[in-house]
Amino acid sequence: MNEISSIIDILFQIYYYMILVYILMSWLPNLRENFIGELLGKLVEPYLAPFRRIIPPLFGTLDISPIVAIIMLRFAAVGLHSIVASVFG
User: Fold this and answer.
1) How far apart (Å, rounded) are the C-alpha atoms in residues 57 and 63?
2) 69 and which of 7, 30, 51, 86 could share a cystine (Cβ 3.0–4.6 Å)?
3) What spatial distance separates the first Cα and last Cα of the chain, rounded to whole Å?
4) Cβ atoms within 10 Å, residue 49
5) pLDDT for 38-84, tens place per residue?
C-alpha cells in the first residue's frame, strides 16, 4: 500500500512540476517553441484547456486557470489516495 501511495505522489508531483515549468516558460519569449516547450505543451495543454475555457483571463492578460488546475490536481491526488486506501486497505 505504501509503495502505491509513493508512486501516486511521485507521478502527481512530476505532473505538477511539468505544469509549473510550462507556465514559467510562457513568460519568456519563444521558449515554448523549442523541443521541450512543445513536448510539455502536448502533455500539459489537454489538462489546462478545460480550465481555460471555464475561467476567463482577469484584466485581459492575467490567466489564473493554471492555479485552479494545480489545486484540482492536488484534490485528484488526495481522492486517488482515498480510493487506493479503501481498495487495498
Assistant:
1) 4
2) 51
3) 8
4) 12
5) 999 999 999 999 999 998 888 878 888 999 999 999 999 999 989 98
